[in-house]
Amino acid sequence: MSSAEDRYRAAISTMDAAAREQDEQRGLRERRLAEAQQQVREGMRQELAAAQKYAEHMDELAKRKQSAGGWATEKTLADKSRESLMEFGVHDEEADTGYTNYPTPSYGTPAAAAPPRPEPAPEPPPAAAPEPQRRGRHARQPDDEDDFSSTSWLV
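Given the sequence above, the corresponding structure tokens read:
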């Protein structure tokens, strides 16, 4: 009987190993699923934030256009957030914005002389006067009757 018991124990151990492997694979799948869901959530949050910013920007442009009487001109649609701020020096949070920071003028001391400007390139000579337009064969001759320049309209 020992051989039957050995076969039974071997079968039980094989089944236990298969069940353990299935549990490990299920756990791995669940972890991967949770990681993928987390990545999707983060991506959707970022897309939602970008979409909200875009919607706010489009609403602002629509308000500007409406306040300009429906005219969508370059001045109406220009980014006014930078123009309306008065800045005195560089702020730490704006140090890497890409905008050029100009030095603050000192009104008590004279400024250093600016380098001389380069001479502009000479303009080419004017072209010859264009030839007067020729009138067509059946063109009307100007009528003196249609000349109202000597008429006083205030009489």
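The two ends are 140 Å apart (CA to CA). Try to locate this feature in the token string yourself.
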